[in-house]
Amino acid sequence: MDSGIDRVNIMNFVDSEPLLLSRMQTELDYAKQKNLEISAAVETQNLSLSSISFFEEGKEYMQNTLVLADKALRQLAPSVWQEFTIHDYHAMLEMPSSNSTQYVSDRINVCMYVWQWWLAFNNGTADRQAMWTFLAAQPYTITRILFESEALLREDQQTLQAFIDEAASKGYQVEMAVGFSRWVLPQYHNWVEEIMQLAANFIRYGPVSDPLNNPPTGAPPFPTASPAPTVIKTDIPWPTDGGFPTNMPTAVPTGTSSGGDGTIAPTNTPTGTSGGGRVPIFQSEAAALPARAGVAAGLALALGFLVAVLA
Question: Which domain holds residue 36?
Fold first, then answer.
């Protein structure tokens, strides 16, 4: 937390107001001491571990609890507390309603994780529109989306830019998320540096068609990413379970993992259409790059429960 980070997001996976407050008290005190922005993520997946997810309690209970905790945190740390981050969009689609609990009228700011990066493609338009409709209907003020971006940064920056532009037109600020837990191991640090350089180039220069082999003019050279993170899966079927697109792009049913975590790095992704001018991006969550060229920008390095920030 002393490594030049702009904001830290605590993976605070518990399901009650007292625990939400007590489990992050040490980090909250330190953030106040360092004047460091802090937010906290909550879990909504059905993990069969009821104490770490709001899935069993339901949507209304979670909203009631987050409203109470947010009010308390704004009193405890008004100068540094930011918001809750909900993990994640797909799990929220499947989350049940609470028994005998109604939403309260208070609306708090939250950020939403969206790991389904393939929603950015043109042939995922219907599913993407369903996502915008879903987000707008939630009992929160959602202004930020934490969007899984590793594969698109490496393979299809035009599609990533088009998603950012479309999100901005709907009032959402996109933060790019990348990362996997084994990236903290020393042998993968060059890989992380390569991803950071890709993100920095994208933020400063805009999308290019071949960012690895033909980076923008004036961009610094890439570090040598060797070895790449171990590939866990090399033949990954296109997801078709609830909430995912069924009109899959024919060019991307399978691929090779680029991060060792099952993230597909397609060899022939459909080309998206750029939405126009650069959209200011402020990227935080685990690590943030400083603003470049007058654009508020940064990158989230999401490494599960362990975060390494490489200078």
Answer: 7-301
In a domain, 94, yes or no: yes
Region 86-112: what's the mean pLDDT? Answer: 95
CA atoms within 13 A on the CB side of 241: 6
- Sequence length of the chain is 311
User: If DSSP codes are grouped into helix, strand and coil, which group holds residue 196?
Assistant: helix
Q: Are 121 and 96 in contact (CB under 8 A)?
A: no
User: Domain for residue 306, yes or no?
Assistant: no
Distance in angstroms (rounded) separating the CA atoms of residues 27 and 226: 34
- How many domains, the chain? 1
Q: Give the β-pairing of 141-148 and 7-11.
A: unpaired
Confidence of residue 235 (pLDDT cuts 50, 70, 90): very low
Q: Exposed (0-12), middle (13-18) or buried (19+): which is 242, by Cβ within 10 Å?
A: exposed
CB 163 within 8 A of CB 145: no
Domain membership of residue 2 (yes or no) is: no
Mapped onto helix, strand or coil, the DSSP state of residue 115 is coil
Q: Is residue 307 part of a domain?
A: no
Mean pLDDT of the chain: 76
For 194, the 3-state DSSP assignment is: helix
What is the pTM for the complete model shown?
A: 0.75
Which among 216, 119, 246, 225 is positioned nearest to 172, based on CA atoms? 119
Q: In degrees rounded to 5, what are phi and psi of residue 306?
A: -125, 130
